[in-house]
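Good morning N.,

You mentioned wanting to compare the apo and holo forms, so I went ahead and generated the holo version with zinc ion. This is what I fed in:
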Amino acid sequence: MREQLRINCIIATPGNILTDVIYTQKLNTWISVCEVSANDSDIGKSELVKHTENIMSFVQDHKGVSVLVFTDRSVYGGPVGSGACAAVLFPLVDTEKWQISTSPVGKRVSSVRCEIEGIILGIEVAISYLCQCAIRKPTECVYVFCDCLEAIETLVNKCVLNKYRNVNKRLMCIEKKLQDISVVVKLVQINGHTGVIGNDIANREAREVAQNVLRGKVSTSEVILINDGYRIAREILEKSWQRKWNVELTGRYTYDLLPAVGKNVIFPNSRSVGVSYCRMLLHDTFLNADSFRTGLSDTSLCSCGEEIESVEHVLLRCHENEKTRTVMISGQSKGELGGTEFPHLLF
Ligand SMILES: [Zn+2]
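and this is what came out, ligand included:
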């Protein structure tokens, strides 16, 4: 039941505010907003540095008050490969040591799956830690830090959880336990690999286990999820498409402009400019350079008489297009997508 849900989410924005506004619609019972005010010294620093400093100071403020858990994952051998996750728990008492837990996830798993497993591992570790605590508050708050927004959203929104085998069931079980022991979990998104110590340790530990999974030193599931199967199929198809495009004998002019397959070309809003653009990419315009080559024109020279009428000449050098060129360059600097009509290029 939604009312019983005890997993909240705080998004640590790259700026200086930690807030959970994104999830307020979903979690009207357990909302908590946490703000970290900016330091004066933040001025002039990059967003990333500010974010890291805010997380560090957030950790410093909550250390010893709440249980803090950092989770991360590692996947070797492609986007669907040998994966593992790890959780590092900072206990309530400063004199206690960090608790590091790791878990192999599978031989053919995606990074998001491993991140989700990492968060679940982190919450489970926190539950067992709090259960054996001799003294604790009536309601405890556990902060779980993760650098994958997709994993956080998947767990909080639950809409695509059926993609991940058994996760929903485990999550329901965890929520029941949290309710029984009166513990609230808050997921905090952080930027990974930015020097936040707990995140760095979790990453290192997960990497070690993932390497062992790859080398066969750790036995783990070989089950592949259907979505990960699609992902592998897509990767194979793209590689094969790219290989064919690399060795193809025709279309080499276009290849020089668009060497990577699977990338979308951004077309201008104007249809006629779009058609010209397409013709330029295909090396088949109505300019004299192309028309002469295909036998449709007696000359390859531009009407200005200075050069062969190539795309480069028309767009960049021909004095007859000086005015249009100025419009094009000014449109580009403004980031306009409308496009500029060059009379010579119109079909
Ligand atoms: Zn010219």
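The radius of gyration is 28 Å.

Happy to go through it together on a call whenever suits you.

Best,
F.
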